[in-house]
Specification:
The protein is of the alpha/beta class and 460 residues long. It has helices at 3-17, 59-75, 99-110, 114-123, 127-136, 138-144, 151-162, 169-175, 198-203, 213-220, 256-261, 268-280, 302-309, 317-322, 353-360, 363-392, 415-422, 432-447, 450-458, and strands spanning 24-25, 49-55, 77-80, 83-86, 91-97, 180-187, 192-195, 206-207, 230-233, 239-241, 248-249, 287-292, 328-335, 401-408. Strand 6 and strand 7 form a beta hairpin. Helix 1 (3-17) packs parallel to helix 6, helix 3 packs antiparallel against helix 10 (213-220) and helix 13 (302-309) runs parallel beside helix 16 (363-392). The chain is globular.
Amino acid sequence: MSRTPLFLMLALCIGACAHYPVNEELTSFDPDGGYRFANLDDSGNADSLFVILTFSGGGTRASAFSYGVMEKLKATTITVNGQAKRLLDEVDVISSVSGGSFTAAYFGLFGDALFEEFEERFLYRNIQGSLVLRILNPVNWFRLASSSYDRIDLAADYYDKTIFKQQRFSQLIESRRRPFVILNATDIGMGSRFEFTQDQFDWLYSDLSSYGVARAVAASSAFPGLLSPMRVHNYDNPPTAGGEDMPKFSGEPQWLQLAIDDADRVDSRFFRATEITSYTRAPERPYIHLMDGGLADNIGLRGPLWAMQSTDSSWSLLDRMNNKQIDTLLVISVDAKPANKSEINENKNAPGLIKVFGVVTTTPMANYSTDTVHDFHAAFDQWRKDQLAAEVAGMEIHDVDFYDVHVGFEEVTDPNLRSEVSTLPTSFKLKKRQVDALRKAADDALTNSAAFKEFLQAMH
């Protein structure tokens, strides 16, 4: 037999066998098991100081910029309960989207190895070129021809083997260490945020523990047009209570039915409840398709906002503040948004399809991110007002110091450095000097932040 027919037979066999890894169905519902904030060990982390990091999208640009912030936190010493500690060791939650999810996931899995391995494994690597070569490989043509394997699966497989060492969420569960890493994607069927936590997977009646972290990162960074959506299975959620008119399903939180029955249909709690029931009570949604998390939240702050606004969140900040567990709240939002300069209005002719696509997939996300930051401030201000009202009524109040630090390119004080990083493209291919410039810019922006300086002064 000649080599060509043999190769074709082998390729056809590979194509026929190609299938994306399926998220496993739960064998039984355990509200206390799995990757949840409550299951992480807080023995080395002071609850009185609660630190949240949010990492934005933006390809390698965002990964490098967030990495630079992590380097600065590692080098920063604070005093907590009379003990000198690295600020990095006090991080409780990292919420990330798109490019920022590579940095967040790597630190969540490997801790300080981030600073020894991440540059060569990811930041300095031409990820974009490697993915293109895999797509051009004839063997992969047959795999991609399968209805059960797509470009996103090819990317996830590459990330799994070359970046994330084939680790599953079980590794994050077994380590039990904070921070709680929330990798965010977008459910394009609902247009809503989808997080890779067991709380979210409960609604799918699915077990997150055996799922590859690389696949979650791939879904979080699947930019429209470049990569295909990621599929996850939504299993039938078994009913546990209620009759035919008012069923309750095992993955649903206790507050859900009250929220649905609320007459206020514009309340955020009602919308959150309808999102949940779209999984637990919707047999017509057996597959959930996920894309870039930036489509629903390009700064990674929507999850923390929900935790700030509601006691329904599984790691509610509102609960913790009301219960006097938090004395100091530090939120560092790392925003790798590029300069907004556009040449569209300089030309008489209408912009082409590619340029229009670029605008409609980036500008609304940037505007939505600004609104999210404003809403987070408003939520904290409302909490303060409620506490002051309680004080006027003669009730004892618990004061919380809130420090909101925004780390963006506009905060970089060196004008030459700011100009260099502000125009870098959204891609997974940057030169080493560009990556290093982003790391330096992050250090500059955080070091010179007035809010960060105020926080450090209070913690010494």
